[in-house]
Protein backbone atom coordinates (compact mmCIF):
# COMPACT_ATOMS: atom_id res chain seq x y z
CA UNK A 1 0.00 0.00 0.00
CA UNK A 2 1.39 3.39 -1.03
CA UNK A 3 0.74 6.30 1.34
CA UNK A 4 1.94 9.88 1.60
CA UNK A 5 0.94 13.48 1.24
CA UNK A 6 -0.43 14.74 -2.07
CA UNK A 7 2.12 15.45 -4.83
CA UNK A 8 4.98 13.26 -3.62
CA UNK A 9 4.86 10.85 -6.56
CA UNK A 10 2.74 7.99 -5.17
CA UNK A 11 0.83 7.62 -8.42
CA UNK A 12 3.99 7.73 -10.53
CA UNK A 13 5.46 4.93 -8.41
CA UNK A 14 2.16 3.05 -8.59
CA UNK A 15 2.18 3.26 -12.40
CA UNK A 16 5.80 2.10 -12.60
CA UNK A 17 5.04 -0.86 -10.33
CA UNK A 18 1.81 -1.94 -11.99
CA UNK A 19 2.00 -0.94 -15.64
CA UNK A 20 -1.48 -1.17 -17.12
CA UNK A 21 -3.09 -3.47 -14.53
CA UNK A 22 -5.14 -0.73 -12.88
CA UNK A 23 -8.60 -0.51 -11.34
CA UNK A 24 -9.85 2.83 -10.03
CA UNK A 25 -12.88 2.75 -7.75
CA UNK A 26 -14.55 4.96 -5.24
CA UNK A 27 -14.23 3.90 -1.65
CA UNK A 28 -17.67 2.68 -0.47
CA UNK A 29 -19.87 5.55 0.67
CA UNK A 30 -17.51 8.25 -0.65
CA UNK A 31 -16.38 9.94 -3.82
CA UNK A 32 -12.74 9.32 -2.85
CA UNK A 33 -10.84 7.23 -5.40
CA UNK A 34 -8.64 4.31 -4.46
CA UNK A 35 -6.50 2.79 -7.21
CA UNK A 36 -5.67 -0.92 -7.14
CA UNK A 37 -3.40 -2.81 -9.47
CA UNK A 38 -1.15 -5.81 -9.68
CA UNK A 39 2.58 -6.02 -10.06
CA UNK A 40 4.58 -9.05 -11.11
CA UNK A 41 8.05 -9.56 -9.72
CA UNK A 42 10.07 -12.80 -9.84
CA UNK A 43 7.04 -14.79 -11.02
CA UNK A 44 4.99 -13.55 -8.03
CA UNK A 45 1.87 -11.40 -8.32
CA UNK A 46 1.38 -8.61 -5.77
CA UNK A 47 -1.57 -6.29 -5.21
CA UNK A 48 -0.60 -2.61 -5.08
CA UNK A 49 -2.93 0.04 -3.65
CA UNK A 50 -2.46 3.76 -4.29
CA UNK A 51 -4.25 5.64 -1.50
CA UNK A 52 -5.53 9.22 -1.36
CA UNK A 53 -3.08 11.75 0.06
CA UNK A 54 -2.82 12.12 3.81
CA UNK A 55 -0.86 14.27 6.23
CA UNK A 56 -1.68 12.44 9.45
CA UNK A 57 -3.27 9.27 10.82
CA UNK A 58 -5.64 11.61 12.65
CA UNK A 59 -7.97 12.31 9.74
CA UNK A 60 -9.32 15.76 8.99
CA UNK A 61 -10.36 15.26 5.36
CA UNK A 62 -12.42 12.53 3.75
CA UNK A 63 -9.31 11.40 1.83
CA UNK A 64 -7.36 10.98 5.07
CA UNK A 65 -10.23 9.07 6.65
CA UNK A 66 -10.38 6.66 3.70
CA UNK A 67 -6.62 6.07 3.74
CA UNK A 68 -6.59 5.50 7.50
CA UNK A 69 -9.49 3.04 7.18
CA UNK A 70 -7.69 1.17 4.41
CA UNK A 71 -4.50 0.97 6.47
CA UNK A 72 -6.25 -0.37 9.55
CA UNK A 73 -8.80 -2.68 7.88
CA UNK A 74 -6.78 -4.17 5.03
CA UNK A 75 -3.67 -4.81 7.14
CA UNK A 76 -1.19 -4.53 4.25
CA UNK A 77 1.94 -6.68 4.17
CA UNK A 78 3.93 -3.49 3.72
CA UNK A 79 3.19 0.24 3.72
CA UNK A 80 5.44 2.25 1.43
CA UNK A 81 5.47 5.80 2.77
CA UNK A 82 6.44 8.02 -0.17
CA UNK A 83 7.98 11.33 0.85
CA UNK A 84 9.43 14.33 -0.98
CA UNK A 85 13.21 14.46 -0.46
CA UNK A 86 13.13 18.27 -0.57
CA UNK A 87 10.68 18.46 2.34
CA UNK A 88 11.74 15.46 4.39
CA UNK A 89 11.37 17.11 7.80
CA UNK A 90 7.70 17.91 7.19
CA UNK A 91 6.99 14.36 6.01
CA UNK A 92 8.64 12.29 8.74
CA UNK A 93 5.96 12.88 11.41
CA UNK A 94 3.60 10.68 9.37
CA UNK A 95 6.33 8.03 9.13
CA UNK A 96 6.54 8.02 12.92
CA UNK A 97 2.74 7.79 13.24
CA UNK A 98 2.67 4.80 10.89
CA UNK A 99 5.39 3.10 12.92
CA UNK A 100 3.66 3.89 16.22
CA UNK A 101 0.49 2.30 14.80
CA UNK A 102 2.49 -0.91 14.36
CA UNK A 103 2.38 -0.85 10.57
CA UNK A 104 5.17 -2.47 8.51
CA UNK A 105 6.75 0.59 6.87
CA UNK A 106 9.31 1.15 4.14
CA UNK A 107 10.27 4.77 3.48
CA UNK A 108 10.60 5.78 -0.18
CA UNK A 109 12.44 9.10 -0.31
CA UNK A 110 11.28 10.28 -3.72
CA UNK A 111 12.43 13.20 -5.87
CA UNK A 112 16.06 12.54 -4.95
CA UNK A 113 17.05 14.12 -8.27
CA UNK A 114 15.38 17.38 -7.26
CA UNK A 115 17.05 17.29 -3.83
CA UNK A 116 20.42 16.74 -5.52
CA UNK A 117 19.73 19.69 -7.84
CA UNK A 118 19.38 22.05 -4.86
CA UNK A 119 22.43 20.57 -3.11
CA UNK A 120 20.48 18.61 -0.52
CA UNK A 121 22.28 15.51 0.70
CA UNK A 122 20.33 12.77 2.49
CA UNK A 123 22.13 9.89 4.18
CA UNK A 124 19.60 7.14 3.48
CA UNK A 125 21.56 4.52 5.44
CA UNK A 126 21.66 6.75 8.52
CA UNK A 127 17.95 7.51 8.18
CA UNK A 128 17.25 3.77 7.95
CA UNK A 129 19.35 3.17 11.05
CA UNK A 130 17.57 5.90 13.03
CA UNK A 131 14.06 4.81 12.01
CA UNK A 132 14.77 1.08 12.11
CA UNK A 133 13.11 0.49 8.73
CA UNK A 134 14.25 0.11 5.12
CA UNK A 135 14.77 3.43 3.33
CA UNK A 136 15.07 3.63 -0.46
CA UNK A 137 15.91 6.68 -2.54
CA UNK A 138 13.89 7.14 -5.73
CA UNK A 139 13.38 9.58 -8.55
CA UNK A 140 10.17 8.07 -9.87
CA UNK A 141 9.70 10.59 -12.67
CA UNK A 142 13.04 9.34 -14.07
CA UNK A 143 12.30 5.67 -13.19
CA UNK A 144 15.28 5.68 -10.80
CA UNK A 145 15.32 3.55 -7.67
CA UNK A 146 12.19 1.60 -8.59
CA UNK A 147 13.99 -1.76 -8.90
CA UNK A 148 15.60 -1.16 -5.50
CA UNK A 149 12.18 -0.32 -4.05
CA UNK A 150 10.72 -3.53 -5.49
CA UNK A 151 13.55 -5.58 -3.99
CA UNK A 152 13.18 -3.85 -0.62
CA UNK A 153 9.44 -4.59 -0.56
CA UNK A 154 9.92 -8.26 -1.49
CA UNK A 155 12.71 -8.74 1.05
CA UNK A 156 10.76 -6.96 3.81
CA UNK A 157 7.61 -9.00 3.19
CA UNK A 158 9.64 -12.22 3.04
CA UNK A 159 11.27 -11.47 6.42
CA UNK A 160 7.93 -10.63 8.04
CA UNK A 161 6.26 -13.82 6.76
CA UNK A 162 9.18 -16.09 7.73
Model description:
InterPro entries: FeoB_GTPase (IPR050860), G_FEOB_dom (IPR030389), P-loop_NTPase (IPR027417), Small_GTP-bd (IPR005225). Residues 1-159 form the FeoB-type G domain. Keywords: GTP-binding, Nucleotide-binding. This is Small GTP-binding protein. This protein is of the alpha/beta class and 162 residues long. The chain has helices spanning 10-18, 62-74, 88-100, 112-117, 124-131, 146-161; strands spanning 2-3, 22-26, 33-41, 44-50, 79-84, 105-110, 135-137. The strands form two sheets. The chain has a four-stranded parallel beta sheet, sandwiched between helices. A hairpin with a 2-residue loop joins strand 3 (33-41) and strand 4. The longest helix is centred in the last third of the chain and has 16 residues, at 146-161. It starts with a strand and ends with a helix.
The CATH topology is given as Rossmann fold
With strands numbered from the N-terminus, the spatial order across the biggest sheet is 1-5-6-7
CATH class type: Alpha Beta
Q: Percentage of helical residues?
A: 40-55%
Tell me the domain tally.
1
Q: Compute the number of strand runs.
A: 7
The description of the largest β-sheet is: 4 strands, parallel
CATH homolog superfamily:
P-loop containing nucleotide triphosphate hydrolases
Quickly give the CATH architecture. 3-Layer(aba) Sandwich
Task: Compute the number of helices.
Answer: 6
**Unreliable stretches:** none
> What general form does the structure show?
globular
Beta strand %: 15-25%
Succession of helices and strands: EHEEEHEHEHHEH
Ends distance: 20 Å
Amino acid sequence: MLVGTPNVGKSVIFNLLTGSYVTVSNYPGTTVEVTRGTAKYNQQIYEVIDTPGMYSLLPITEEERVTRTLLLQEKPDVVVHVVDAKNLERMLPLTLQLLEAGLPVILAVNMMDEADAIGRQIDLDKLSEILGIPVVGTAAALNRGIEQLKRAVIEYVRKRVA
